[in-house]
Input
Amino acid sequence: MSEADMTNGLALSLGALILGAIIMDMAIFGTEHMIFLGQKFFQLLGWVAFWR
Output
């Protein structure tokens, strides 16, 4: 196992950090822009899948 491997604890911590940031963003700025960001995220997924 190398130093760059992602452990379960690291993955859970990163997921909790991202989820917390999204919740804080929605509490401060509202939910209107989340639809736009979701659409851009799915476009990014399609672009990444193209290069796979």
